[in-house]
Amino acid sequence: MNPEPLVELRGITRTYGHGDVAFQALRGIDLAIAAGEFVAVMGPSGSGKSTAMNLLGCLDTPSSGAYRFRGIAVEQLDRNQRALLRRRCLGFVFQGFNLLARTTALENVELPLLYRGEPVAERHAAARAALQRVGLAERAGHTPAELSGGQQQRVAIARAIVTNPLLLLADEPTGNLDSQRSHEIMELLVALNREQGITVVMVTHEPDMAAYASRCVHFVDGRVDRDSRQTSCS
Amino acid sequence: MLLNALLLALREIRRNLLRSFLTVLGIVIGVAAVITMVTLGNGATRMVAEQISSLGSNLLMVMPGQRLGPGRDSAGAPKFRIGDVEAIRQQVGGLQAVAPQVGSAVTLVAGTQNWSSTVNGTSNEYFTAGNWTLAAGRRFSDDEEQAGKAVCIIGQTVRKELFGSASPLGNSIRVKSFSCEVIGLLAGKGQGGMGQDQDDTVLMPLNTVQRRLTGSLDIGGILVSMRDDADTATVVGQLRGLLRERRKLAANADDNFNVMDTKQIAETLSGTIGTMTALLGAVAAVSLLVGGIGIMNIMLVSVTERTREIGIRLAIGALEQEVLLQFLIEAVVLSAFGGLVGIALALLACLGLATLMGMPFLFNPGINLTAFAFSAAIGVVFGYFPARRAARLDPIEALRHE
Asked: Is Manganese among this UniProt entry's keywords (chain A) (predicted)?
């Protein structure tokens, strides 16, 4: 494994509010994730796993502590620099899919490339390739309303991987899907992780989904409670 | 980045066609109203100016009586005589033509046709003073003027009523007890500044009218045409002095005649119409402003409605200024498009209304450009605040928004 981790959190805290109403969501997190890992993040509600995901996704900044992404001190970046980092290195998959309504699958998938300023031809080719990769090539012209939940989530995954990200962050990607679709999505994520070497960090409640990961991190009360590298988490 | 933002904005407009259409409607109506008002106002001003100038430029009309209009008795004031006309011609400087005028309402008969019109007894100088030209035939000869021969020059309306489209030259018209020969046809002038038909007229030598129709030596009025370089105030001053002297008025007595300046009438009328145009334009501008507020309203609602979408865009790496630009372009494209449709609508409305009201249609590039620039500016101004609000959203909050 790569000796320098892709992501490194040291003594991260995150406090919301001030004074009496202050709420400490993270109370000192130390975590290193190497390139190529598939990490499942588990823990009860309010344990800080979503806050940690937002920090990892550069959507939020820590109250204290250091976050290194490939050696870059993320906590020192401003809003736009973090946006550029997300654009270049990160992919997001959400529980609620978060596709643009009344917009075709192809247009949804090519959106990140549009923000990167890719020329039309490459944009379309890459978006079609990504849809092909998730098995939805023939659905490119459909809008989210015309797709099933599982298909929508696969479009969302295509959108997340179209930029060849280093890190794919999935926040309960199977939370809104039935069991069979959930397993299909997980197999897709595992394949992306194995075949394309995309590092995946996934929050989940369900142990059988976490079982697909190569490493499992348990959060309790804003701290890392257990961190196990194994083939099955529980 | 600009191109991308434009593409995104256009996709967004296409996604919400009905909403976009309703948003644009306010701007369309505002722009169309402003342009229509101003264009029609300009047309009306031009029409009045043309009508007044068709009377003759730098023209003074001298009438007996203390004041024009009702409420003053002008019957007591002495009329003018031909001697007054001669005196003005000789003693007042800066004049181009001085023409006497004696009007008489008559019934004209030619063959089986008859027509009521006004005979105007005057001299050849009337052509210069009244800005008339001949369409056919000739002016009066000296002999005809001196001897008061039975000859006449008729206007287009009289020609049409009595002779149809045939040439009237050489034909006779019976006026009261005598018959007179048509020697000329005036070129048409159309409607006058007060709405009267200027072409409904018959010109005869002054002597003919005085001897055969009115039976007196009185002259109803004098048309005085000034040279272009003449100063109106000076000429009017000289004219009044001369006439007061000839009419033996005491120093403290009021004038028993008055001098009307057509240029001044034209300016007054144009000024009034200009004020009306400005007023209507201002009302229309308010509706344009309301249209702009409509755009802001829709954009603000749309920011709230699309909070989650903005969150998605920010999460996948859209920069703050890219979101700002997209929303701004959406607003500008909508309002600029509304401006264009408004201009097209205004042109149609102006063409239709100008034809309907018999006014000239003056395409005014200035007001069209101004209205378009204004509508685009409305897009920028009223689009900016919603756009900034969208761009500054916290992506985490925005994604959580339902």
From this structure: no
Q: How does the average pLDDT of chain A come out, rounded? A: 91
Q: Which helix (H) or strand (E) covers residue B44, if one does?
A: helix B17-55
Name the strands in the sheet holding A38-42, side by side, starting at the edge strand that comes first in the sequence.
Answer: A90-93, A167-171, A199-203, A38-42, A215-220, A223-229
Domain boundaries, chain A: 7-101+165-229
Domain count, chain B: 2
Does one domain contain both B302 and B374?
yes
B100 and B222 in a single domain? The answer is: yes
Residue A87: closest C-alpha in chain B:
B317
How far away is chain A from the Cα of B14, in angstroms, using its nearest Cα?
10
Range of the domain at B127: 78-255
User: Structure tokens of A57?
Assistant: 């996704």
Q: Are residues B235 and B330 in the same domain?
A: no
Q: What is the least distance, in Å, from the CA of A231 to any CA of chain B?
A: 31
**Residue B57 confidence (pLDDT):** 61
Question: Closest to A115 (Cβ–Cβ): which among B308, B316, B320?
Answer: B316
- Asked if the C-beta of A94 comes within 8 angstroms of chain B's C-beta atoms, the answer is yes
Please report the pLDDT score of residue B75 as a whole number.
Answer: 58
By Cβ distance, the residue of A84, A92, A107 closest to B11 is: A107
Locate the chain A residue with the closest alpha carbon to B400. A96
The predicted complex's ipTM stands at: 0.91
- Flag whether pLDDT at B72 surpasses 80: no
Q: Which of B255, B283, B313 is the last residue of a domain?
A: B255
Is CATH 3.40.50.300 correct for A7-101+165-229?
yes
**What is the DSSP-derived secondary structure letter of residue B255?**
P
